[in-house]
Amino acid sequence: MNTSSALGGWDVHAHIIPPAVIAAGERGLYGMRTEPKTLHICAHGVPLLPLSKIDALVDRVNRDGLDGAIVSVPPPLFRPDLSATEREGYTQLVNDSLLAACRPHEPSLRPFAYLPVEDPELAANIASGLDHNWAGAVAGTELGMLSYASERYDALWQALSDAKLPLFIHPGSSPDKRLDPFYLSNLFGNPVETTIAAANLIFSGVMHRFPGLKVILAHGGGCVAALCGRWQQGAATNRPGVPELALQPVEAVRRFYVDSLVHSPTYLAAIIDIIGADRILLGSDWPFPMGASSAEHDLAHLDMALKRKIRKTNAEHVFGRRLFTPSP
To answer: How many structural domains comprise the chain?
Structure first.
């Protein structure tokens, strides 16, 4: 074990497909179907290997010398396409199966509960019922005609705040067809979708009105660090449509947490400066090609004190006892 591995810590951005979801695909439920190596969901074909090999994730955690990983289902399993009559049953399937898949690997794997945020009221009801078994919740960015600025989400923010339940916002897919060429839907679209979600939370005042809300943004927060100065200028010069804000954008961005997955020491340095070293959590996006090959991928150039903060201390602050499974 190298010196960095001895630090321990938590990977807050890792994915698996639980066996029960694959079994549901084999039965053709919720518009899913399976082939030997692929789970088909709508237009997505999701490779089952290694996403279905939970032991492989545990091996990765051990190789990195981590205490564990906080696990969510991959974004193709976010289903804003489902009808209102199917949504609740599908969500229960995903969450029950993820919890069951993680349980044999406790305490190394802790689950994020999936929230169907295209239905704000259902998402709030589900969040209100999440107990000590869950490390937090995960939500996508495909909200139909809604945005996270809508007051319909206030009950969700309140439920998450009351339960001290961190929310991981992870982009699903980009609806912009201009991004179809060159893999831009991921290279560009995913970070932009996260940035749009963050901007709506800032300019609608959510980050001020719900100070107990813990929001983690995937992929280094997308473009938040790069754009918050421009957002601040818009607020300072009273640009049309920008409301009077109790919490200025440069302050509001420091209410977010972001993962470390940026593939750039220079941009990570900007995030540390703009968002804060106390707000960065280790994330790998295991096992996707756009992820990190190890815990050192984005952190190797940092000093040991900062590595410890990003790998371990910050996660302990954000999740607290939810990193473990205490008796209710």
So the answer is: 1
pLDDT over 60 (residue 159)? yes
Q: Is position 268 within any domain?
A: yes
* Residue 43 falls inside a structural domain: no
Which of 269, 161, 284, 156 lies closest to 212, judged by CA? 161
Q: Cβ distance 116 to 125 under 8 Å?
A: no
CB atoms within 10 A of CB 48: 16
pLDDT tens string 262-275: 999 999 999 999 99
d(CA 318, CA 279): 9
Report the predicted TM-score, pTM, of the whole model to 2 decimal places: 0.96
Rounded to 5 degrees, φ, ψ at 114 are: -80, 130
Alpha-carbon distance of 91 to 97, in angstroms, equals: 10
In a domain, 38, yes or no: no
Give the structural domain span for 119: 5-17+54-323
Instruction: Give 168's strand partners.
Output: 138, 216
